[in-house]
Recover the amino acids of this structure.
């Protein structure tokens, strides 16, 4: 009789621990999947170094052209101050 009660208690305890471990394992799998999806989404929103350098070079080219135009304007204004 004593061993039957002891067996029932141990079986119940092992069953509860097994259930908890299974639930935690499923939750860990779910969180891992969500983390991977988040990494994919974040990667879509950020630019690469190559894209940044290309954009910066475009801006610098525009500034260089603007500088040339300002220089020409200043030279023309100095040559003919009556304008």
């Amino acid at each position: 009789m004593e061993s039957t009660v002891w067996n029932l208690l141990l079986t119940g305890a092992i069953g509860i621990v097994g259930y908890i471990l299974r639930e935690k394992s499923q939750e860990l799998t779910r969180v891992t999947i969500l983390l991977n999806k988040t990494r994919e989404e974040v990667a879509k929103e950020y630019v690469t170094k190559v894209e940044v350098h290309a954009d910066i070079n475009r801006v610098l080219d525009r500034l260089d052209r603007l500088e040339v135009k300002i220089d020409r304007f200043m030279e023309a204004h100095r040559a003919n101050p009556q304008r």
Observations:
- Residues 1-46 form one domain.
- DSSP finds two helices and no strands in the chain.
- The first helix runs from residue 2 to 45.
